[in-house]
Amino acid sequence: MKITVIIFASFCVLLNAQEYNLAEDEFGEEYIMVPLPLRRQKRQSTYDLSHAGGLTTLKLGHTQKFLDDGINKFSLNGNLAHTFTPRSPLTLGGSLNYLHRSGSGISVGVKNTPGYGTDLGVQGKYNILKKGGATFDAVGSYSRHYGGSSGTLTPDWFAGVQLKIPF
């Protein structure tokens, strides 16, 4: 019982020690204004309009980083592509990416073109050793095409190790 009273009293003292901004609306209601930390989110949009071989293609992309605490980074990417020809479908895609400060990470992406099917891909890398500028990583990927005129294809995958030595 004494501990509860001490905790409650400490809470009341801390609550009263805080500085609050009060605001009042047109009806006389009072509100406590609590400052929130502002954090700028990094966004990047890209476009490419090209003309080659008699075909004009438009590509749009957008990347949104929604977590970057210096150790972990998460981002979402979205993109679309369209070639301006009769009956040319619009290709839509996106990915979710994670990157750790160590260089380890994973990316999951999907792309769909109506009439041609959907492509799914997963790529990952795990940093085993980093010394100086050299890195030794376990890497892997998986991709598969679903649907469309060619039907569902067998998956492509890869697993291995990678050594990078700067010169």
UniProtKB/TrEMBL annotation:
Species of origin: Cryptolaemus montrouzieri
Predominant place of localization: secreted
Entry similarity comment: Belongs to the attacin/sarcotoxin-2 family.
Cleavable signal peptide: 1-17
UniProt record, GO biological process: defense response to bacterium; innate immune response
One GO CC annotation: extracellular region
Pfam assignment, any one: Attacin_C
Protein name: Attacin C-terminal domain-containing protein
Source taxon at top rank: Eukaryota
Keyword ATP-binding found: no
All copies of domain Attacin C-terminal, residue ranges: 91-166
InterPro entries assigned: Attacin_C
Subcellular location as annotated: Secreted
Alphabetically ordered keywords of this record: Antibiotic, Antimicrobial, Immunity, Innate immunity, Secreted, Signal
